[in-house]
Write the C-alpha cells for this entry.
Amino acid sequence: MSASESSTCGCTGDTKRAERDAAYRRALWIVVLLNLGFGLIEIVGGFVADSQALKADALDFIGDGTISLLGLIALGWTVPARSRVALAQGLFLGTLGLGVIGFAIWRAMNAVAPDADLMGGIGIVALIVNVSAALVLSRFREGDANVRAIWLFSRNDALANIAVVIAAGLVAWTGKAWPDLAVAGIIAVLFLHSAWEITRGALAEMGGSS
C-alpha cells in the first residue's frame, strides 16, 4: 500500500475510498462523532468520579476521534501535508500519554478511591460506544486494511473499557485506589505505543516523499 493510500496509523481509513464512497465516509464521520462526543462526556465523568482510569480512557476517545477527524479533513491534501499533520498528532498523543502517567504517579502518592459505582457505569457505557463504532465499520472491514485497523482499534479500546469495569469492581471490593491507577497506567502505555507508531510512520512518509 502506498503512502498516498493510507494514513500513518490506519486511523483515518482508505483516503481514496473515502473520497469516492459516501457510505464509507459517513461511517467514518459517525465514528469520529462517537469518539469525540463520548470522550467529552467521559472526561467530565472522570472528574466527578475522581477516576484516573476514566480520564485516561476519555483522552483515548478524544485522541482517536481527533486523529480520524483531521484525517477526514485532510483527504484532499498532499501526502507531505498529511504526514506533517500525523506527526503533530503523534507528538500530541505522546504528550497526553506522559501526562496521564505523571498524574497517575502523583495521585498514587495522594491516593483516594474513586466512586466505584459511577466509574463502573461509565465504563459500561464506554464499552457500548466502542462496540457501536466497531459495528458501524464492520461491513467495510473486509478487504480494506485501513478500516480493519480502525475496527481493531475499537475492539482494543473495548478491552480497555472492560478493564475499567473490572477495576471499578476491585475498587468497590477493596476500597483502595490502586486498581483505578493501574488501569490508567495501562491505558497510558497503550497511548504511548500508538503515539510511537503514528510518529514513526509520519517520519517515514516524510522521508519517502522528500
Summary: The chain has seven helices and no strands. Residues 53 and 184 are 4 Å apart (CA to CA). Confidence is low (pLDDT under 50) at residues 1-12.
